[in-house]
Predict the structure.
Amino acid sequence: MRAHQTLAARQAGTVVIGGGQAGYQVAWSLRHAGYEAPLHLICAERHPPYQRPPLSKHFLHDGSDASSLWLADPEQLEELRVTISSEAVATAIDRGMQSVHLADGGRLPYDHLVLATGARNRHLAMAAPPGVHHIRSIDDALALRDELPSARHLVIVGAGFIGLEIASIATDLGTEVDVVELSDSAMARVVSPAMGRVMAERHRERGVRFHWGRTVRRFLDDGSKLSGVELDDGRAIVTSLAVICIGVAPNAELARQSGLAVDNGVVVGDQLHTGDDRIAAIGDCAAFPFSTGPVGTGPVSTGGGEPTRVRLESVQNAVDQAEHVAAEIASGERVPYHRVPWFWSEQFGRRLQIAGLAAGADEEVVVQPTSAPEPVSVLCFRDSRLIAVESVDRPRDHMAGRRLLAKGLGPTPQDARVPGFDLAQWAKAAASGAAERAAEPPKETRAAG
Amino acid sequence: MSSEGVRSVHVTIDLTKCIGAGACVRAADRVFGQDDDTGLAYLLDEQVDVLRASEDETSGNVVLDGGGHTHVEEAARACPTRAIEIETTTAPSGQAGD
């Protein structure tokens, strides 16, 4: 009976709403896991699935074609046997009938539905004349790329990853850059204040001007186009080009309308399912339970309440969550999702890599092997436990960080402060120590807390 | 030996760009590996005629097996930092055979 139902149900296949990195990866991983049922990808844009990270990096200056960003060429998509609806909008989910309604009147039945709807840019609540840009899509990036080479001046609103990546590209192109940031540190949402200072200094020494604790009061125009940006302290910066990079909001309206829980994204449980067993949510749009414990133990709730939910915007998160959901759909086996988040950025030729989430850190230790400002790593701790490793041009530290965080291991702040401390070496010593311990009879090795 | 020649792909990994995402290994695990210590990508000796390996770069030739998809191109596309450059060449018959 059960087998019969499964067989019949398989005919509808899997529908993925969202043709970004996460949505594409679901399709790819399903096929590579031997999934044979129909696969349908609903894409909002006119482009096939593509990579977004380069949009604020090399794509802005190297003149490369949009097709260079595609995650798969048409031949590869055909091999995946995935049906793609381009410039399509899902308007409703009929959970009872298990079908997705499209704006063009189409209906797609599903056995499994994956929400990979992504996020959209936040805007400033004010009129923005031509010359004010946002960046999220290929088309956004092409529009900015057209204007950048002739711009003498660029104002960037927001000192996050994307704002600072654009600042570095524009500076290299010879454009003067002002960065307006509401908080008092760079990339404050993702990196520690110590790393924020390291990176901001790289920008300052290249001539980037920061306006900390400031926001935009209004955009000035000459009747047809941007002519300046007025800050909330009354100062005006003359410019004909500005880009707003103040973060994103999750695309969760469809989930909300379908009766699914939404709270800073589509709320999912530890297996990335929504309240509806047939519907998962992944990537930028999903708010999932997160813990800093060792991978394999599952998210832990702190003090009996709900576990902390996070929503991450990264390639790692999109790909790992997509793989997780695809594996579950293909195999029917359910296990908790638990991976170490990692991020990266490129600014002025520096490779910044982050393992773990630094939010909530109460202690930072800066590890510098030489007297030069880089390479450098910042180790972030909470209650003396390692929760994140941020490194500039120290890939060994980054990788050691990923491995240690996956095991729930790490040095103490006291260990890290010893002159000459090297995280990669510490990790190796810890691993060989663990191997020795594993050879001994099992015993209680970890104290609680 | 076919007179059409042997299609081979020249692969170069720019290690200054690599961030250890592992996307290349996922797409083509017979061609790419990932260093345990650094997470950086490298070319697997068994599959690839590795020509050069320096601090900043590693490169080599992959011979496509009889029209079969080697997924090397897919790996290059999947790399989030575009650290992998590929160049397809057709060598005259007899040069790349065993």
Notes: The first helix of chain B runs from residue 23 to 27. Chain B has two helices and six strands. The CA atoms of residues 14 and 83 of chain B lie 5 Å apart.
